[in-house]
TrEMBL record:
Residues 34-81 form the HTH cro/C1-type domain. InterPro entries: Cro/C1-type_HTH, Lambda_DNA-bd_dom_sf, MLTR_LBD. Residues 272-292 are annotated as: Disordered. PROSITE patterns: HTH_CROC1. PANTHER family: BLL4672 PROTEIN, BLL4672 PROTEIN-RELATED. This is Transcriptional regulator. Gene3D superfamilies: 3.30.450.180, lambda repressor-like DNA-binding domains. It holds the Pfam family HTH_31.
Amino acid sequence: MTHELAAFLRTRRERLSPADLALRTGGRSRRTPGLRREEVAELAGVSVDYVVRLEQGRGLRPSAEVLDALARALLLDDDERAYLFDLARQRPTARRRAAEAIPASLSRLVHDLSPLPCLLVSQRCDILAWNDEMAALMLDFDLLPEEWHNTLRLCVLHPGYRDFWPDRELIIRQCIADLRAAWAARPDEALDALIDELTSQSAEFARLWAARDVKVNGHGRKRLRHPVAGPLSVDFQVLNPLDDPDRRLVIYRAADPASQAALDSVVQARAAHRTTTAAGHPDAAPDGARGR
């Protein structure tokens, strides 16, 4: 994480200007954007050499007090500050759980939240469980190979999602900003592998990952372009079980009456299709929450 800490500090310094902090420039011109290291050092109360060594990734382990001073000097918001502390291993991290089956209570909750579309995901965006409403709104996860059971991989690489999000870059940018916070808080080899895969296969992902935006997105609104129902908007809410920080419930609600009508139509069409399929195949799985 030393390299990432260095890069993060550089990008946060370069995005600021003296005017952001009411600094006097003395009329000197600037050949590069952002604050000078000298200015950051003065604002944080550390030496210029210390800032240089941090930005060069030369093995320093800054204390919580120094990190707090740097966060103030660089005008970091709450999510960015937490990310900085995580990179420096100065924030207590939640206890990691060993890989295990999804608790039955969470699987039932995904089902019980119907008719609201809902899915359960891991910190690295793996799709662990979903209900029929979510499958109708997104893709039929039952029909996808397991390697596609990842929301970020779907969004970035799956051809079916190329036109699904009208605000595609914004959606990917927000997902990456959220993923960065999880990546720093709870290092994970599988997550590192996913990031390497997406960086190598998508120039778009590589560019947005390199921006080092950090933002935990607990709620918001998304616009969709459903292949059958057409345009609709959903409000989303993300819930995190207190005893299982590596898993998240993502719940969608239609944002307006027209979107609700569109959602109802795709859910009804899926239910009718499943009823027809089940009639022809008595051993077909019943409706409800799916998962690994």
